[in-house]
Each structure stands twice: as structure tokens, then as C-alpha cells.
Request: fold
Amino acid sequence: MMRSHNEVQGMVLKAARGAGVPLGHCEDLAAAMPDYIALGGDMGALVVALNRPHQPWTNGHGCAVMAAPTAIDLVRADHGEQRIKRADLPLLVLALVSMANRFGGGLACDVQGDCVAIGTGPGVSVVVPGGAVDVDGLAWAGLTKLAALTFVPETDASRAAGAGAGLSDND
Amino acid sequence: MPDSDPPPIPQRPLRAPTDVMRLRRMGAGFPTRLSFLRSVTRRLGAEGARITRPVWDIDTDGFGHGVYCVDFGGYTYSLVAVSTDLPPEMRTDRVIATAWDTSYVLYDGVPDADTIARICRAAPQQEAARFDPRDLILSRANKSVRLFAHVVDALRMGQQPDADMIRDVGYLMRTTAVYGNGKFGIADRRIFCERPGMSGPFAAEMLTVWLIRGFTHDLVEHMGGAPLDRRLKRHLGIGNATGLGMAPFLVSHPLLLDAWMQVRETAIARVRAVETLTPDQIARLYALVARVAQHLAEWQVPDKIAQGRIDILRREWPEVAALMTPEFMSGAVPLDRLINKSVHWSVDTQELIAAMVLEPFGDLVDGLADCMATPRLPVLDPAMRCADLADMITRDWPWAVDADYSDPRQCAQFWYVSEAKQEPRLGSRFIEDGAALESPLDIARQVQALARALEGHVGPIAPLLAAHPEHRAAARRVQTVANHPYAEIRDNLIAKGCLPIDMLRCKLAFFGAAKFDPKSDRWTRITLAQGAPLADELDNADDWWLPTFAP
Reply:
């Protein structure tokens, strides 16, 4: 189904939160979605990645959602080139670098199979097209399922306490 | 010889964010000439925009559809309005509603018959339908049943409706949602946000609301079989019911909030720097003082707290008027002195004065409206030293880090999203379930946690955030406020005393809303476009700040 970029970004933000990704990483991930889409990133693969555990990146694993923002930070803080080995989503790393370059510049990214190196250099960035995006229904369902983990089931009490409850609108 | 830049416009220092960004003051906001709807109508007027109604297929009971077209900024936009029969038991302004009296799409271009048919099928379903990237805005509105029926009945009897009733209600319909920016498949804002006239925040939404208002006028005239008196019609704006869904926006868009506030505060600072007033400007301000008095007299609400604040405004306003003697107004920097003196009155009166003094100075402030939108996002500086980040927290966030969040009063509430229709809500932490899933609007508490994590660390923050990614969002917010001091509400949003209505009013005032009519501490009715020019009055588009029902 065709989705707007903002729909995709909003859903990915919620899904990442539902998956237990720290908020700051969720924000970066959502912001990088136009880049990920422009690069031809697979939303189904993103769902799979979000369903994996999310631990702080320590060079020992390749969870792009956690590794890429951290690696970008370390490069920008003059900690030298960072290598993400066995990256589960190399395109997502590239998308996050591209997004970071749109707001800062100066990051190079070299993808060799599942190994991604981020360093300083001519900034890579992709042109983000306008228009709607075709998102696979199964992937969207996966994102929706994760996002739903942030929702609080309704009760009579919460419904009654909601905005506008109990007042006539036939006036 | 190169052109030299024009000299900068003089201005006084901006009011401090430590004052301006407190919830109580934000919740005392009034519309200004920089408000988004006002900017849109001003632009429509400046362009001499023409509104046409090429389609009108409405039956005698008022059901069917109509299409309005407006040429604006070199593009044509069309409002497709759909009116359907709604049983009274289904009429609710809450977001959980599933049917409405009327529904709308603002379309990019002129819709052909197939497109109109598509929109007529989809718009009444609202969130349950999918829309097209040429659909820019999706909205719906319910009738103000009492007034709508009265106006139609009066017109059918060859009479004009009761003026007091029009004054007291002020609108024929209330919008209950105005969706933009990609919701349900409609266009992303970035597709049209660089077009002339559409670059301002919520410009497309405000254009839609203004067109909907015109449709409500046409609908009652069609059903009543007679024209409404122009004066009555102009006083009929469009109502709106707004709940908690609007509140998190101010937290999740810090740079936008900063832009809105910076612009408004810069406008105030420029007007304060005006050395002397011309006789015309003084006369204009006196007329505005009288208008405010009448507006306050006509602003009556059932809510006791809100009415109490209006009563204080009514008591204090004669004191404001008394201060503004010809001698006072003829002296040096009179508006700076007026704002300085206003600290002796209530926060509501202070904010009303600040909004009023902008009115005669369009030449000084209107251009600032172009700075109220921003494409930027907050960016983390991972090279910042931990000590520098800690210093920022000490300087900008004492209100956050000094609080004791183990005190039940400081964490009494939690924001969450309800499973039912994903409606944002506010719960009582110690009474209701669900706090484990709370939405991250506890900014103050997050910053305190960051401050504690920074203790004992040296060097750049990047390694700390690598080990503790849970602080990444807070670090970015702290850095953002250092450069954008109006980006953050400087109050604890989970404290017992947090009133979401203050957040709603702040945002709605920027939209241009007036006649705030709170129904609880978490939702309010308001009126938009009351007193705004009608479609054939756009050559007189800009003098409708704080509308009054003039005899």
C-alpha cells in the first residue's frame, strides 16, 4: 500500500519504541527513513532487525539500529573510523549516515558486504524523492504490531478520563 | 558599488525564555497578527485571490457535496465538502467518533468528476479510508446543532437569526480534526511547503478551515433559501474542539516551537523599541483598547476557572486603559514602558497587552512570519565535552534537575497512547494502569537522569552515549535548548499541577484561535476565523484581531 513519508516515519518511530530501542536512536531511525527508502531499503528487513535485542553497541555485533548512530557519534567526536562488522542492515547504516550528512556533513561510508566503515571524508547523501512510498503489507503489519506494544489497553476508567468524555456534543 | 544591507530593525531584548516558556504563561496566549490563519488571509488578500464554487450538488435538506476553488500563489487548490445525514446519537467531537456531519478534503488542483466521486466516498470515512498524495488536507466538522437549526429556521421564515445567539455561539460548525502532513496517505507537507503562500506553519490547514467556514455559510443560506446578513455572517467563524492529541506536538517539535516563540518575541521586542508613536498609531491603539474591552465583555464561558481569569481581565483592562493617557503614549518608548508596567497585572493581561501592541506595526513585524517554519531537525553534537553539557543543564534546566521525581506530586501523571484509535491521554500514575508504557513526555525527568549520568565523566559525550544510549534523546534536547532557548516548555509535564489545557491554548493561539472555552483541563472549544473576511471581502483582509460583535 502507498504510504506517505511522514506516515512511515511516524510508524517506524513508534515501532522502534515498541521494540525497546532507546528514544534517541528511535528519533534518528525515523529521521533516516526517507534516505532508507530512497536507497531501496527493505522494510521487511527493518522489521526483522527491530525484533532483535537492542544492546549498546560495543563493536561486537552489527545491529544497525544501535550501531550506526553510535558509530557516527564516535567518528564526529574524533574517535577515528568506526567499523560495523556483520551489520544486519548495511543499507540502514548508509541511510543513517546520509541523514546525518543532510544535517551536518562530512561523513564517508564504505559498504563492503556486511561490513560498513564510517569515517570522515566527502559526505555521502542520497536525494530524497517526494511522493508516496509503496510499503509491503506484511512489513507494515510487523511495524504496527511493534508499535502496538506502546499502546495502553483501554479501560472504562481511562475512557471516562479521556478528553471530552461525558459531555454532550449535540449542542 | 554593491548594494548595502538595510540597517537592522531596532529591538529591545527578547523576553526571557525562563518566563515565556512557563506553562501558565503559554496557557495565557492570545492570537496575534502573526497567527497562522491571519497570515493566510493576509496573503489571500494581498494576492487578490478569487474563490469560485464550480460544483454545488446539495439537496434541500443540506446533504450532498460542493467544490470551492481558490487560486493562491500560482496554484489552484480545491476544497471538496461533503455533507451527510448524521443521527444525533453518533455526534461526538471526540477523536473516537466514526461519523460526522460534514467532511472535507483540500485537493491540489481542480478535481475532475472521478476525483470528486472518490473524495465523496472516502472523506466521510476519515481515518478508516486511504487518501491520495494530491489530497493535501483531510478534515471533518459537526454542526452546532442549536445554532445551525435556528439559523436555517429563521432564514426559512424570511427573518435573520437572533444576533445574541450568533454572538454567544459564534460558529455553525466545529471541526474535530484537521489532518495534514501525510496522514492516511495524503500529501507530505514537504511536497507543497515551498510554494508561495503555503510555506508557513499549518498554512494549508488554515486555508482549509477558512474555506470550510465559507461552506457552512453557504449551506445554511441554501437550506434557508435566503441570504444571511453580512454582518452576522462575518461573525460566524468555525468552531473547533481540541483535545490532548495536540499537546505532544509542542514537545515533539522543539525547533518549530522555538521558531514560533522567537518570532513572536522578536516582534514584541521590535515594537518595544519604537521611540515615539505617531498620532495615527496612538489612535489605532486606543481603538484596539476599546475593542479588547468589548471582546472581553462578549467572552463568557461555563468553566469556573477560565471565567475567573476572564473576570480578572475585565477588572484589569480599565486600569490598562487608564494608564495609556495621551501623555503616556506621547512619551519616549511608550510600548516598552507599557509592557514593563504590565507586570503588575495578571499573566493573562500581560499577554493580551503583548498581543495588542503588535497590531499597528505590520510593517515592523509581518515579515517575521516567514521565519515561523523550519525544515531543520535537532542535531546531536557528540563531540561536546561532558562538562560543557553539564554546564548547559545547570544553566538552562534548574527547574528540571532540582525536582524530586520520587515525590508523588512530581510524577503524578503519565502520558500514554490509548489502544483505542491511538488517542493520546493523560493518566494518574498511582491510580491507573499503564505507566510502564508511558510516552516520553517526561522531559524534565529525562534531563535529570542525564545530569546524574554525566557526573564524574570527562571528555566527549559520544562514549558515554555509546554505553548509555538511553540518554541520547535528553542530550540532544539539552543541546537544542542552548541554541534555541524557546524550544522547550520549562515545566514538568508529569507533575500533578501540569494542565494540558495550557499547551493546547498556546498552540491554538498561534493558529489564530480566540474565545477559548475550556471544557476541562484537557480539552477546549475555540473559534477560528470569527470576524475574518468573507470570500468577497479579501480586499479588507487584515483588521480582525480579537473579533467583536459590533452593533
Observations:
- Chain B has 22 helices and eleven strands.
- The longest strand of chain B covers residues 64-72.
- Chain B touches chain A through 71 residues (CB under 8 Å).
- The two ends of chain B are 57 Å apart (CA to CA).
